């Protein structure tokens, strides 16, 4: 009996031992499988997909700098950037210092070449003829680069600037009608009022100065002006929060404006660094303020209702968003549980960002160019005085008179060519493949169109392409160059800036009023150093000498 008990215990121990060994083997097997799965995943993501894309392009005769694993061409990009000057006084050469690697590779490999930043594969395109194909493509399969969409989410969310697919199509269909000429002409008085506030401020500075000339850094005032306009136009009586929102968006922009972000390398926005914590804080504050504007408006609507002729852009967005979710009717492109408030917030952030920053910069650069070319400044001033009978402030409700300001129009077009706020047009092929002219592009390739280079191409614009010559636009864009489709200050194709009519109207009115009242010259303290911070900005601001215009001498 004792022996039988001992045998029974021994069997149990053997069984337990076998189970322990078996469990250990299972754990090691699972670890082995997991490790190999990670290796295969990394191989597919980091190497195979990249090599497949590069192979497809190489077979079509497209070459570029040889990448190194796993960083691609990032090292060479950084080395070439170190050799770029910080500031350039030569007005006709600075553009190529922003991204010197593009200029270097363009000389080595031609106007179409490929390069890599880690897992991202890029195609640089500088052939004017190909702009036509991109412009004609209206497919949702050619959208914004996904790495930019993810990285810029705190700043722009899923708004129209960075969204793709149905989200983008819904927002565009909702907003485009609100920027027709018939709508934006109703905003002329608001633009005039905001500009007159800046004029009074500058007149005060001139009165207090010696000799009737004051030195001004105009950047802040121009941004204040355009921020005031976009807040009143789009958000009605809730515009007071605008300046706070703009300031916080500018801080977010400064944090995100890095080349590693722009070209899709090392997106570490999930790490709780000091910089990221500040970004998250700003994002929360901005969204909270915009949500307050939304809730206040919804409260007003419940109390007094809305009238068709009193609808501002915020009201249009609220009503459009309400109809976008699937309700009892079964209509709408978003599900009933979709966070529609977040979409409204994202749309508002996009309007804030695009509506004031780019417009302000366009006016700032134009004033600088006019200060550098006083003969054009005087020509425009004389044209304004003749058109509006020397009356200030002018009535700009007559759109025909604004259209007849040909000298001003030519200067604006030339300024947008040389100093357009947007320096890049970007696309990603989201379908399996897409045809672009003679090329077939694989899924996942990111297209980069360097606007500054396209606008300075001597083969398209002539040997004086880098010079300020507004007269080239005397016959319109179609006669200014060989390939008008390569003139893209507002983007191209289906994703062209929906607010371009608004921006042009605002530029004309603001410049008319400023030039009617002031004369501008470049300050000796001005340092010409444009930088790309998602938009083309003067690093040290634009310093001008401003004096009052005597109407009798105009």
Automatic annotation (TrEMBL):
The chain crosses the membrane at residues 26-48. It is found in: Membrane. It comes from the Eukaryota. It is a single-pass membrane protein. InterPro entries: Cyt_P450, Cyt_P450_CS, Cyt_P450_E_grp-I, Cyt_P450_sf, Cytochrome_P450_Monooxygen. This is Uncharacterized protein. Keywords: Heme, Iron, Membrane, Metal-binding, Monooxygenase, Oxidoreductase, Transmembrane, Transmembrane helix. PROSITE patterns: CYTOCHROME_P450. Belongs to the cytochrome P450 family. It holds the Pfam family p450. It comes from Glycine max (Soybean). Its cofactor is heme. GO terms for cellular component: membrane. The keyword rRNA-binding does not apply. SUPFAM superfamilies: Cytochrome P450. The lineage of its organism: Eukaryota, Viridiplantae, Streptophyta, Embryophyta, Tracheophyta. The gene is LOC100802008.
């Amino acid at each position: 009996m004792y022996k039988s008990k001992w045998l029974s215990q021994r069997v149990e121990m053997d069984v337990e031992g076998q189970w322990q060994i078996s469990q250990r083997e299972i754990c090691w097997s699972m670890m082995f499988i997991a490790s190999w799965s990670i290796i295969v995943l990394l191989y597919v993501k980091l190497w195979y997909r990249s090599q497949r894309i590069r192979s497809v392009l190489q077979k079509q005769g497209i070459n570029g700098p040889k990448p190194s694993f796993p960083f691609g061409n990032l090292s060479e990009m950084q080395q070439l950037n170190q050799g770029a000057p910080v500031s350039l006084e030569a007005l006709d050469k600075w553009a190529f210092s922003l991204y010197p690697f593009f200029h270097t590779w363009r000389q080595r490999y031609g106007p179409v070449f490929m390069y890599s930043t880690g897992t991202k594969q890029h195609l640089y395109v500088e052939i004017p003829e190909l702009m036509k194909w991109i412009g004609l493509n209206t497919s949702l399969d050619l959208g914004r680069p996904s790495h930019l969409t993810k990285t810029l989410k705190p700043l722009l969310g899923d708004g129209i600037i960075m969204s793709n697919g149905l989200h983008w199509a819904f927002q565009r269909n909702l907003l485009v009608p609100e920027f027709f000429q018939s709508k934006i002409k109703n905003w002329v008085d608001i633009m005039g009022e905001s500009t007159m506030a800046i004029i009074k401020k500058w007149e005060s500075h001139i009165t207090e100065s010696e000799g009737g000339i004051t030195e001004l850094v105009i950047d802040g005032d121009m941004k204040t002006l355009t921020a005031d306009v976009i807040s009143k136009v789009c958000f009605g009586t809730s515009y007071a929060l605008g300046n706070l929102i703009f300031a916080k968006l500018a801080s977010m922009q400064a944090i995100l404006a890095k080349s590693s972000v722009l070209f899709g390398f090392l997106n570490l926005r999930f790490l709780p660094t000091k910089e990221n914590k500040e970004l998250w804080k700003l994002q929360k504050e901005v969204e909270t303020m915009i949500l307050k504007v939304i809730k206040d408006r919804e409260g007003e609507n419940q109390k007094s209702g809305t009238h068709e002729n009193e609808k501002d852009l915020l009201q249009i967005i609220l009503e459009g968003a309400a109809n976008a979710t699937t309700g009892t009717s079964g209509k709408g492109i978003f599900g009933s549980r979709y966070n529609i408030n977040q979409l409204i917030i994202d749309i508002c952030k996009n309007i804030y960002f695009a509506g004031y920053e780019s417009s302000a910069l366009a006016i700032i650069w134009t004033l600088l160019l006019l200060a550098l070319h006083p003969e054009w400044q005087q020509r425009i001033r004389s044209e304004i005085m003749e058109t509006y009978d020397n009356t200030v402030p002018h009535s700009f409700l007559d759109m025909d008179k604004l259209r007849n300001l040909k000298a001003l129009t030519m200067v604006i077009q030339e300024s947008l060519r040389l100093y357009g706020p947007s320096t890049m047009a970007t696309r990603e092929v989201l379908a399996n493949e897409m045809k672009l002219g003679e090329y077939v592009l694989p899924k996942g390739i990111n297209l980069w169109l360097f606007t500054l280079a396209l606008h300075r191409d001597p083969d398209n614009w002539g040997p004086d392409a880098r010079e300020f010559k507004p007269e080239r636009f005397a016959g319109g864009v179609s006669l200014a160059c060989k390939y008008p489709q390569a003139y893209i200050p507002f983007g191209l194709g289906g994703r062209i800036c929906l607010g371009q009519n608004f921006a042009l109207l605002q530029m004309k009115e603001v410049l008319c009023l400023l030039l009617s009242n002031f004369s501008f010259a470049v300050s000796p303290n001005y340092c010409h150093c444009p930088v790309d911070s998602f938009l083309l900005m003067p690093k040290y601001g634009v310093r001008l000498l401003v004096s009052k215009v005597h109407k009798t001498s105009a």
